[in-house]
Write a structure and sequence with these properties.
Number of strands: 7
Oligomer: single chain
CATH class of the largest domain: Alpha Beta
Largest sheet: 7 strands, mixed
CATH topology of the largest domain: Beta Polymerase, domain 2
Helix content: 40-55%
Amino acid sequence: MTAATGRTAVDAPEQAVICGYWMDGQGGGQPLPEIPPAAAPTTGFYWLHLQSDSAEAAAIMRKMGLGKTEIDALTATETRPRATKLGDHVLLILRGVNNSPDADPDDMVSLRLLMTDVGIISARKHYRRLHSVTLLRASIAAGQGPSNCSEFVLMLVTALVDMINDIVDDIDEEITAIETNLTELPSHEVRPRLALVRRKTASLRRYLAPQRDALDTLFRMPGVLTENDATHLREQTDRSVRYVEDLDLARERSLVLQEELRNQMAEQQNLRMYILSIVAAVFLPLSFLTGLFGMNVAGLPGTTDGLAFVYVSASMIAVGVGLVVIMRWLKWI
């Protein structure tokens, strides 16, 4: 963003400032004329979105009067969802769906928010874009953005939860598809699909469970949200709770499917071994007879009889049929 024009929101990954707006309190906003803002807005509030791992981001936040605790929280390398009071400010760390090219949906992006008296500072890492932030910027451009900081947080949380809903639905559909076709699909296809579902489920739940707690903590903070926004945030928190429960159920279903697949493979293996055992049981006495009459020693009966081979073959057939009848009678086959 250039101070000379003051009209272009910066969205270059190599720069510290991704975008910044003066919000007019009516849903619209204009790009910040300078970074950091020279003065507090007389009406509305400001929103400054930074790249947390940029070397200039910390310097910008220091110029805005933030302390070391706030700066460290906004630029930390590793974060987990939480909501906490930092003096007069509120720190909110959330996780959202990664919209970077070729990114896994379960590779969730950390979004850090610091609510002050006059605005909001948000931060995310290099090339870790969030569709939720993109939607919020589009709403501001259309004049349908938030009118205050409380509504800003609510709109952002709603967009984040909506994106998570899509992923949870995809996981549920995948498990349902595997359940429906488990007996028809080959095991070498089912195993990697189940492994992928379990990995996604574990990764999502790792962040959704603390994010649920963070939203609940934010809801209970006095004076942070308006009464109407707090009510709607409670609904988003309940949705997050439901998604965590859905992920727990998906994990249990995947475990059951894995156990069924293991039993199915064991049953198939046992059936093959059973068939081989039956064949071996039938041919064992026949092999004995062929070995006995195949000895090259004197005194074997039928060596001078031209029909001896026919007699031996017929007796072997009779023995084989008799063994099959006995096994059928014993209900072994």
